[in-house]
Write a structure and sequence with these properties.
Number of strands: 28
Strand content: 15-25%
Oligomer: single chain
Radius of gyration: 26 Å
Mean pLDDT: 87
Low-confidence stretches: 1-15, 101-113, 239-257
Helix content: 25-40%
Shape: globular
CATH superfamily of the domain at 15-276: Vaccinia Virus protein VP39
Largest sheet: 9 strands, mixed
CATH architecture of the domain at 15-276: 3-Layer(aba) Sandwich
Distance between the termini: 48 Å
Length: about 700
Amino acid sequence: MITELDKPCQIKRDYQQLINLYPATAHTDAHYASKLRVYQQQIVKANAQQKLLVLGQIGLGDGLEMLSWWHAQANLNQRLLLKVFEPNPINRYELTLLWDQSRTSMAEPASELKLDSAFTFKFGTKLNPLAQTLLYAAPAAIIGCQRFIFDDGRITIDLHFGDIHTQLSSFIHTPQHPICHWLVLPHLQKLLHSQIYWQMAKLSNDNTKIAGVELTETTRNSMKTCGFAVNDINDYSSSDYSNRDDISFAEKSINHQRDAVLLHERHVLRQQDAQAYGFNPTQGVSPSDITSPIAIIGGGLASAHLALSLAERGQGTQLFCKDIQLGQGASGNRQGAIYPLLTPENDELSVFFQQAFLFSRRRVQALTAASAENQTSISHDFCGVLQTAHDERSQLRLNKIIKSQDWPPEIAYAVNANKANAIAKINLDKPGFFYPLGGWVCPFEYAEAAIQKAMQLTEVKLNLNTDILNIERQTDGWYLLTDNHRFGPFAQLVLANGAELTQFDASNQLQISPFRGQVSHVPAQFELSQLATVLCANGYLTPSHEGLHCLGASYVKDPAHLDFCPQEQQDNLAKMHESYPNQSWLENIDMSDNNARIGVRMVTRDHFPMMGCAPDVAKIFNDYLQHQLTKESRHYWQITPAPVHQGLYILGGLGSRGLSSGPLAAECLAAQLCGEPIPLDKETLCKLNPNRMWLRKLLKGKAL
């Protein structure tokens, strides 16, 4: 994943060191594996009536338990969400070391990683394909949650890396789909304590139990003190349960009595979260509404991926696009760069974009693998992105980013001028910051592939050449109006219409701005045609695709028109000269054809997308008249759900990095709409809230 491009640091740990870090002595015992398999199968079967089974696991270990959960669920007609909490960030190379003791694959390119007989001996041939699939998905060693979706949404794995207590406490209880079972791996038992168990209890339903291996009496008592029933995997075998029906197992293991006081403590923890983040409402679809379609206005990347994420949940959609085909707005560019946005502080913005970029990259890979079925290919090349400075100020900023954090090398690493030249295959003569997993993607093909896949999974009605001029809320739902037709009612409506996001009365006060962008298309010729990576400096330049490079882009706020602009064409060229002065390949950039594409991206001041309930701004200001500039008013806004339009949601403000942020934002909104756990922490969800600009002031007691 990293080393086929560069090896800036020695990330290959000795296998024995990994064994010390992730002890797996119990896992090598065939008896343990057999007991684990029986236990997991019974858990899955006992919950077979649930459409979504949410499981929690403390510790990743060597992956046996996670892969076994996956395999146990494979033949059942339900979806599985497995949330794995591991304190030590681990990347794919480390997983390969754990799963391949021979280490022969360490010298192979990422696309050729193989698991040898050592893995097969230890885990069995049935788990080998699952391990290969996870390795290909490329987990990264970053703090936070990484979501992996497999088998058309039937299997979802959330890998939470970082301090376990921090990770658990940063997520909110999901009443419709809480965690119904926990498995604790042996090597982490000594790190757990009552505060962690209480956070686990907060995220669980009231009948959730914990299982472990060789649990000490102290550990058992700590778990029970937090209201859990406790089982040991070693207590189970096929002889115990192979002849028992699911009901008897459920009665023995799940439907046990709870201490009322302990249950009350769980509810108190949930109420504390609800009060602390009461201002950020997350309305979802009730179970009775799950079969009705959700309306989406928009025809770009965000709309398509929302339809796909909902389709993976069995939720139908009806999409309305004003153009004759998808991706004619900001998603219509030939090539778009895909890479994370990093900050020196590695704050919520930086963490979100790392999570989102990796998620989007996996989406491209999955849709590309399914292209034979979709009949839709996605032009792309994960050739890396090389970021360089273009003046003294940008150099200081880039240096600060590089030096401020110990960035995982699969995310980014510094290169000197010689290495930058070697990566780019043309002379830059500048040091830079290289994103090895980045590259470029064709946005409109990406959107089309997502829609085609969604249509394979569930009912998706696509209304092209349908310009929605107005929306109105009635008692039975939302209606969408064109010149001569009225669609509806819809219980849920999502506005994901890009540059037209603020065209309706219910959305026209969103704090978001349109920026025109002109991307120049220049022929691939001579030295320029050798460019082998995306360059990002003052503007960007892509490797050639179908004989053309993309060069851009202009950035004009509140554009008066979308006509071709000769001056912006020359400005794009000037940015390259400023970024890489005196390089011979600059003379190969031929602008004479005036070939370009113009689009509008919607941009927020803080660079976060907007995702969530549509704010009722008029009511916010009306309530503000009664609650302003006092200590009591701050408390009021803290615990009171901010006014929103019932059943109306926003997905937009993707800016110039929609390829990186759009798919994950869509996945999170789909989870919110369906009442499922969202793979983002509480603070980040607040940063995505379309209400956030007003709420930040109100929560601080400032004037609007």
